[in-house]
Design goal:
The protein has 719 residues and is mostly beta strands. Helices cover 2% and strands 71% of the residues. A hairpin with a 6-residue loop joins strand 31 (643-654) and strand 32 (661-668).
């Protein structure tokens, strides 16, 4: 939890902060400098504060029986050991443990769907003695209980038959369901690194996970006639399921450098095992109004699966002069999995095996990837070219039930190119291209119908071909930390041949889907972000805009449809950093989304969001914080709220004795006016979704921050 660490770290113990492009250890060791947008932050502590403990404890209770509490503590011995403990329990989706300035006043947990109760804890450590041997690990536990009420209205594009009116080309469906899910997960991670020398390193990682998840869903699905008022079909359903999952992963990397600068060898071996078990029962009551009939369906499900994966390979890099290098890499990926699925259907009170849904199969995949890459690097320009070839063999063998064996063999090619030119220390231009092939999954290949959802039946297609993708990116950035001025511009585009899409057959309320290959899918996008300090260290403005155009292809009732999707999202943020008596920000954002379908039905949704937050620092140790947000939506489906207003506030009192203690009174969603509404878009439909939320409540909490960093004398005796 990097936010928890940073916001609890005392500012006076920081020596310096460094920011750089992030590359993993393998890339650093081999000298791979492919473009990356990720950054790494390095916090260096002052030597005299290298050992100590700091942290925070918090507890709160509020109206509607809302509560939150937690602990964060970090210990460093000043030599080689760090030990961290974190714990949190709440039914609000947040905790005061991870925040030092009362920022929960503009916490966005109210956007999360449902009402969630959770308990989380973790213990982690690191040991680093003389930089030769490093060991770190963690154990974490999570328990959650989520109650969700979900309502949606979906509009599906249908082919327009000759002579039909536009209204005949839309399928209108409404869904209301109530879900209750509970889950637990235990996780253990261990990582070691041993340096035989500066040029010979062995690194190992071990990961263990075990979890259980149970859930119950009560659903009510409606399908409307073309008049959008009368009902043609209704399904009432109850679904219960329980899932258990266990996984073990072990990875090892051996890195060897040579006397010749730039020459390196990297060898990897990764092993993984996963086992899961699912049990459930399903009840459906289907009512057909046009024919005045109904039928009930009950079934029981039991599914067991396990998988094993191994990855072994190497990468050898050979320098050619001071600025050029060539890399050769080879990787073998082998995986095997087995799955057994048994479905029993009730008939006059007696359950019998459904031979269409019950089946067992074994999957065996083997991929051998070999690649060659060239890289050039100097002070200004870094670039490279590469190509990978990947012969593969895939087969799915039927072990029980009806079905057919599926076998595929082929070879994939992955070209790539990257270049980065640095105009100066603060500005650069990056260009990248990569292509690839994604084979279909075994589920997509298996021609076995899945009736888990009686209204959405899926059947695989053994004739699927791999997807062929092409992606190109252009990025310009200019960041002046001293002036506080930052700018970056991104342009990206991609197109895909033989994309795996849905071939959907709609019959009344039932949807039968089979994956097929199709061309004509592409996306184009751009984004810009510019930050300018109007008054240095006092007032800063940030402008950003994102735009995207995409075209998706789908097949409905045997007819090809092209769905165009346009999005534009500009925003502006004004921030005041004056820490003496006031800090605050004002933010406006707009989002426009338009979908054009082959059904000649165009849909436009617009959203305006104006938000303002601030904190007044008042004498006597008081601090008053607030957050207001006003949103207006245009174009959502009928029955969904179009305007929302959220108001949060917090009054905080910090005490000098005992030092570190503060009391807080917080109010969330004061006017109880902010439901969660979201627009989802797929290849042949769009839907508006509304879910329940916590709602308005008040919270009184106590926070205690503790710090103990005994200052040590340095080599010169300085206090």
């Amino acid at each position: 939890d990097i936010r928890g660490v940073i916001q609890n770290l005392p500012a006076e113990i920081i020596e310096k902060i460094q920011v750089a492009d992030w590359r993993d250890e393998d890339a650093q060791f081999t000298g791979n400098k492919e473009n990356t947008a990720e950054k790494v932050i390095n916090l260096q502590l002052k030597k005299k504060y290298s050992g100590g403990i700091y942290g925070r404890a918090a507890a709160g209770y509020g109206t509607k029986d809302r509560y939150q509490g937690g602990l964060f503590a970090n210990y460093m011995d000043g030599d080689a050991l760090r030990f961290t403990v974190m714990g949190n329990a709440n039914n609000t989706g947040m905790s005061d443990v991870s925040n030092d300035k009362g920022g929960n006043v503009n916490n966005t947990s109210w956007r999360n769907p449902g009402v969630r109760t959770e308990q989380r804890s973790s213990v982690n450590f690191s040991y680093d003695k003389n930089k030769k041997f490093q060991l770190n690990g963690s154990y974490s536990f999570a328990n959650n209980d989520n109650y969700l009420q979900r309502s949606s209205f979906r509009t599906t594009y249908l082919p327009t038959a000759p002579g039909s009116s536009p209204g005949d080309s839309l399928l209108l469906q409404q869904q209301d369901n109530e879900q209750r899910s509970k889950g637990q997960q235990h996780s253990v991670h261990m990582r070691s690194k041993y340096k035989f020398s500066d040029k010979t390193i062995l690194r190992s990682n071990l990961s263990l996970r075990q979890g259980t998840q149970t859930g119950t869903t009560n659903g009510d699905d409606l399908t409307y006639n073309a008049d959008a008022e009368s009902i043609s079909f209704r399904r009432m359903s109850v679904v219960n399921n329980e899932r258990q999952n266990t996984s073990v992963n072990l990875s090892n990397s051996f890195m060897k450098g040579f006397t010749k600068k730039g020459r390196s060898l990297l060898v990897n071996l990764n092993l993984g095992y996963n086992a899961n078990k699912t049990e459930g029962n399903n009840y459906n009551n289907n009512i057909y109004y046009n024919t005045q009939t109904n039928n009930e369906v009950r079934n029981l499900l039991e599914e067991n699966g396990n998988s094993f994966t191994s990855t072994a390979g190497f990468k050898y890099t050979e320098p050619i002069g001071e600025r050029n290098s060539i890399s050769l890499n080879y990787h073998n990926v082998y995986s095997s999995s087995s799955n057994t699925r048994n479905v029993a259907v009730a008939n006059n009170g007696t359950y019998n095996t459904d031979t269409n849904q019950s089946r067992g199969y074994e999957n065996i995949n083997s991929n051998n990837k070999i690649g060659l890459a060239y890289q050039y690097s100097d002070d200004k320009l870094t670039g490279g070219l590469g190509i990978d070839a990947e012969p593969y063999s895939r087969k799915s063998l039927q072990t029980s039930g009806t079905g057919t064996d599926v076998r595929q063999n082929g070879i994939n090619y992955f070209p790539r190119m990257f270049a980065r030119y640095s105009f100066s220390k603060v500005s650069s231009l990056e260009l990248g291209y990569d292509g690839g092939i994604t084979p279909p999954s075994i589920t997509q290949l298996q021609p076995i119908p899945d009736y888990t959802d009686s209204l959405n039946i899926f059947t695989g297609n053994p004739n699927l071909r791999p997807e062929v993708s092409n992606n190109i990116r252009l990025r310009y950035s200019k960041n002046s930390i001293s002036k506080g001025r930052n700018m970056w511009v991104n342009l990206h585009g991609g197109w895909m041949n033989s994309k795996i899409i849905n071939n959907t057959q709609l019959t009344g309320s039932k949807r039968t889907t089979t994956p097929v290959n199709a061309d004509g899918n592409y996306t184009l996008g751009s984004s810009l972000n510019y930050t300018e300090p109007f008054i240095k260290k006092l007032l800063t403005g940030t402008f950003s805009v994102n735009g995207n155009v995409s075209n998706n292809v789908t097949i409905v009732n045997g007819q090809l449809q092209k769905i165009a999707n346009y999005t534009i999202a500009p925003s502006f943020r004004l921030t005041s950093y004056s820490g003496k008596w006031y800090e605050g920000s004002l933010n406006y954002s707009y989002r426009g989304n338009k979908v054009e379908g082959a059904a000649q039905a165009n849909n436009l949704v617009q959203s305006h969001d104006l938000a303002h937050d601030g904190t007044f620092i008042i004498p006597g140790g008081f601090r008053l914080s607030y957050y207001f947000s006003y949103m207006v939506n245009k174009g959502l489906s009928q029955g969904f709220q179009q305007q929302f207003f959220l108001a949060n506030a917090m009054l905080d009192k910090k005490f000098n004795k005992p030092r570190g203690l503060s009391l807080r009174l917080q109010a969330f969603d004061v006017f109880n006016n902010y439901p969660t509404v979201q627009r989802n878009i797929a290849d042949n439909y769009y839907e508006d979704v509304s879910v329940n939320r916590i709602g308005s409540y008040f919270m009184f909490s106590m926070v205690y921050k503790f710090t103990s960093f005994p200052a040590k004398k340095d080599a010169e005796g300085e206090e």
